[in-house]
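Follow-up to my earlier ticket, as requested here are the two runs.
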Amino acid sequence: MLTSDVYNLVRGSGIAQDHAFRDQIQRAVVSIAANIAEGAERDKPREFAYFLRVAKASAGELRSHLILACDIGLCSATAAKRHQDELVQIGRMLGALIQRLV
């Protein structure tokens, strides 16, 4: 699962030492699943679509943080690349679902 994988990446890298950055990364990854779940509990497709947009934005934020973490030497590019690719796919899937709901 993406959330546990990102937590493990953070724990095993230099990101763990930068507490503010670590917290932001962890909040972003948790936000993805939490917003999908919250939106799914809504009875209206427009509300669900709103929460999916928030989840999609969090996926983009997380991808950006992982790119930055590698650029500044806090984690290895190979460790983060798989997650970045997965986040692109998640963003595409969320975008397609949003289009079906609106």
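Run two:
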Amino acid sequence: MAAVSWLILLCTYPDFARWQAEGFALHHEAYTRRVGWVVGPLLLAQLGGHACLAFVAGRGFGLGLVLMCWALTAAWSVPCHRRLQLEGPTSPALAGLIRSHAWRTALWTVLAGTSFTQAAG
């Protein structure tokens, strides 16, 4: 998720500002639907894996980070996406979306580092 998150933060979301206002809602909806097919299974696998680590091995730090990412997504990023859908690429919601995603990217990066450290033993 860290790699996907960095790609979205550095490439995808900044490009939203370059999209044409005409048809933006249609293209944004298509983007969110398609990206959901990519990130949805990754998010569920990540949640399941860290839940197992928490309950089987007593390693709950990763699960806490995953849950923080989910909370940020639900409370901040999803409302920004909804507002952007309605208002278009010039909406102030785009800056909010990028800020919210920067926080999620930081958390997923810490989580990736933690996961690699735990896997290395």
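The only thing I checked on run two: The mean pLDDT is 96. Let me know what else you need.
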